[in-house]
Amino acid sequence: MGIHLENYVKYTQDEDIVDISPNELMRVGAVPDVSAIDGWKSNVKMVMPTHAHLDHLGAIPYMANNFKANIMCTPFTSEVLNGILTEDKIKLNGRIKSMSANSLFQASNNVKIEFVHVTHSTPHTVMIALHTKEGVILYANDFKFDLFPTLGKKPNFKRLEELGKQKVLALICDSTYAADARKMPSESIAKEMLKEVMLGIGSKNKHVVVTTFSSHIARLNSIVEFGQKMNRKIVFMGRSMAKYVRAAEATGIAKFTNKVEILKFGGQIKRKLNKIARDRGKYLMVVTGHQGEPKSTLAKMMNGELKFNFMPEDHIIFSCRTIPSPTNIENREKLEANLRSFNVRIFKDIHQSGHAAREDMRDLINLVKPQHIIPAHGEPKMLNALADLATEMGYKKGNNVHVMGNGERIRL
Questions:
Q1: Does 273 map to a domain?
Q2: For residue 300, is pLDDT > 60?
């Protein structure tokens, strides 16, 4: 029930667009085409996003009323979803229920649902174990095996190992970095990278701007920690930043309001930027726009909507990587070209991914010992890279490793 961000951004960026109905979004490939499940749509009992990223829950406001079903997710995910519904004035027929990680409930006579805590680049992420009389289906989109997280606990390896001693009939697994032959470094490494550029490089009397994923609460925590050590006033700017920070505070995950000024709307941001421009070196600006999105704060600072004049050697820190889609690449290149015209210093890729790499996936397969593996969450080359790893581990493609396309079904 996620949004296809590339298609969604491309479609909604068109200023002539007035129709963002579910059918129209489906037509342009921005939300899932639920006609693929018309045969059993009436049997849907529950919608369960594993975490709060838009490519996992962003279609729920548009699509959930197609089903007579409640939504079940972790508390942070539920807060983010409720925030979107409130902001966009959307009412769902089903209730949004929340359940903590490492909890279990009886969904029906035949199915128990368990949330297993894992790490990712947003809080309260889980793998979902569906316990059926045929065995467990383990849905693992998305996850990272972070042994040194900067926020929250390590993944629940003990429970995954216990599931592996039961019968895991199938593992449906994130394959984004299946071709990347390493263990994905910890968020604590990203924190050290940030520390180096924020505290290790002189920025006296310079503007400093950091941009990162609004949903990455652990990263925002680190940015605030170092901003305080720089003795700067910290300002968060942008709607999505405000939304995720509110959800983090409502669920007790993090506390920003006594350390940070949070500005959501254009008028507030404009007034603040005028003040910041006069007080060089006093502020740390944390803004939306890490992918160069045209409606983001950083892009508006460049395009004149929130006009802001940078000076040579001001610092712009991209604590992210560019998501490699044509629209993002183009938007980021344009943004960076605009920034370079001011001769600022740009620090890129101050980041570690929230997704497992190949060796983490191997560890997951060894822990849960699934009878079948279904690669998911990736383009065909990523799915096939995970299938190749499974083959390396003794599975057989087409026999117990199934590379499937959208809308395809398999009977286990």
A1: yes
A2: yes
